[in-house]
Structures are given as structure tokens and as C-alpha cells.
């Protein structure tokens, strides 16, 4: 007997896949970032995992936890990436990677609250500070603080100090936001 979803039209399954993958993309990216440490590596692995998820989507049972299913695929793709890429300055053995993977997966629900709190706190910063944060952490063309300092015509140590101050302020603000949320 075929599963209920086997009778669905291929375009309906495709639309379902795109919807659930899109809804979980940010969480999967955060999960992979916690395992791999570099955004570019996480993006590469998520791209490969997404293709594999689509190829295996017929085995996914609608109504079950897509995030759990997808994160398992991402975990094994990350494990394979670490083993083959030889880019990682630190080699994680299989047991450590499995531990990290399960802990990060458990932490994902709280991640949404932290992201919302961080967005609120970022919104409280001045425009110049927001631009500095974006340039330092989100601009994929920046290759480091030294290069950013040259672009901004500022001393690297000045940027390090400013970013350190902003990180502390944001961390304190996020903590306050989360405490208020749980009060």
C-alpha cells in the first residue's frame, strides 16, 4: 500500500517541500553554523543537504517533524564536509560532532527568542553603530577587521574596541529582553 502522499501530484509535493524548507531554512542554517563555524561552509552544506532532502522527500511523512528529519540530513552532510573538506582548523571526532549536533538541535527553539531579542536590541542602536555591525558581521565582502578598518579609514584597534563595546551592550540588552519575556 502506498503512503497517502504518494498519490499527490509532483507539483504539490514540490510546493510542500519548498514551503517546509523555506520555513526551516534559518534554523537549519543556524544549526549548521554551530557545527561548522563558518557561514560559507554552512551555506555550502545546506545547499548540498537541500538537494539530498529533495531527492529523499518521498520518504518524509507529512505531519511529522520536518526540522528533525532535515537536521539529521544536515548533520550527516556536515560530518561528511568536515571529513572531506580539510578546511576546518580543528578536527571534531564523530562523538563530539554528534554531541554538538544534538545539543544545538535542542537549543533551536530558544534561538528564535534570542534572535527576536537581538533584532530589538539592534534597533535601539544608532544608525552608525548598526552599519558597523552589519559591515563587520554580515557583509560577505569584508575579509576581516583590518580590511574593514582600511575601508572605513579607521585604525583596526579602534574598530576592535568599538565592536567589543557593542557586543557587550547587545549581550546585556538581549539578556534583559529575554528576562522580561520570561517574567
From TrEMBL:
Entry-linked InterPro entries: RNA_pol_sigma-70-like, RNA_pol_sigma-70_dom, RNA_pol_sigma70_ECF_RHOBA, RNA_pol_sigma70_r2, RNA_pol_sigma_r2
Record-annotated RNA polymerase sigma-70 region domain positions: 24-87
A Pfam family of this chain: Sigma70_r2
Biological processes, Gene Ontology terms: DNA-templated transcription initiation
Protein keywords: Sigma factor, Transcription, Transcription regulation
TM regions (residue ranges): none
GO molecular function: sigma factor activity
Superkingdom of origin organism: Bacteria
Protein name in the entry: RNA polymerase sigma-70 factor (ECF subfamily)
Organism, scientific name: Prosthecobacter fusiformis
